[in-house]
Specification:
- This is DoxX family protein.
- InterPro entries: DoxX, DoxX-like_oxidoreductase.
- It is a multi-pass membrane protein.
- It is found in: Cell membrane.
- Keywords: Cell membrane, Membrane, Transmembrane, Transmembrane helix.
- The structure is a single chain.
- The protein has six helices and no strands.
- Helix 2 crosses helix 3.
- It is 80% helix and 0% strand.
- By secondary structure, it is mainly α.
- It has one domain.
- The relative contact order is 0.12.
Amino acid sequence: MTPSLSLPPLWRAAALLRATADRLERHAAPLVDLGVRLAMAPIFFRSGLQKMSDWPATVFLFEYEYQVPVLPPVLAAALATATELTMPVLLVLGLGTRLAALPLLVMTLVIQFAVGSINPSFYHPQHYLWMVMLTGLVVRGGGTLSLDHLITRRLFRDHRGASPCPSP
């Protein structure tokens, strides 16, 4: 068999793979992006609610157990609580997704590596999964099932006269 006879089937296979990848990107990726946002949001939101439910205990933990480097315990507790209560709401809505995921990623990094190095009970393998998921949101954004996408499309259409994402 000569190489020229084997190329057309290879091209057809490559075209079929490309078409399949395009369909997955168009139909499955938005659901994956939404799933990641919806999976990450309650983890942090519940933590923020727990901090709010007993503020003196939260400050005590930041003072004696968490020992976040650089920040005073009360400020660290307030920032962590505010971040955990606001950023998940933005993730669910897909509004400012990249900016909402970034502080949650930083918090996870601090918990895993700074706090976890001081207190090994805060070192958890699941944090690596969270870091990967949050990094994906920072890199990819909220996806097409987000307010970010809706706003971007509307702004682009209003300023350019055409949608940036043509209909399939």
